[in-house]
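Changelog-adjacent note: as of this version, every example in the card shows the full chain rather than a window. The one below runs 276 residues end to end.
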Amino acid sequence: MSGITCPDCLSGSIKDGKPSGTVTTIHSLPAYVARPEGTPKGLVVLIPDIFGWELSNCRLLADAYAKEGGFLVYLPNFMNGFIPSAGAMHSMESLLAPSPSIFTTIFYKPLWLLGVIGAAIPFLFYNGESVIKPKVFKFHESLRSDPETKSLKIGSAGLCWGGKYTIHLAQEPNLIDVGFTAHPSKMKFPEDWDNVKMPLSIAIGDVDMGIKIDMVKDIKALLEGESTQSGQNEVVIYSGAKHGFAVRADPKDDGQTKSAGEALKQAINWFTKWMV
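Full-length structure tokens:
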């Protein structure tokens, strides 16, 4: 099942700022589009976290890939009819926070728990891998024949929930040219990682609740090992970074915010290396 790895999948902060791209339909899917100044250096398809394509977080990240990297960026709605609201993020944050009083514990905590369950269960029901994976693959296949994009190299950027699909795309020889993922969810070791064929970069924290640090080290050893072409893959481990930091970092937390900025640079540098 493709979905929620840990409580941090549903926690975090909403980014300030107004996205500057446009909304359209691409290959039958609603999509947010961020365009660079001048000719695109390549195409990046951003596969979002559990909060989907409409929240400002992923849209602002798409804008940054376009502005700072010079890429055409598509952020499609790959989800199947249910996306948790930003209110679920507040519910999870409140649920995880220490209770200031017994009243909060008895009355508010159960309400927040119901809010989290009300977001998680429908999401898992409607967005299983058997539904989403074919949709993601079909979209990328269409890009290869689209007059606007067929001459561009294609990169995939998957965040949290979307990371799984970036890794699946990187297992195929022709769907993408390069992949980047930050704190991917619900991956199997070693088979999902051992089957990666295309260049892949991973950003992950050493305190990620979804993938423990020992597993992160095993993934790094496998992807960067002697049996892999030198420099084809990279795993960058961010000290103190939590699951979700690259897209939902708390702006009041300097460490998480710094790691998010570095992960952005990591993605842009990786796409530039393999697409330009």
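Structural remarks: Residues 102-126 form the longest helix (25 residues).
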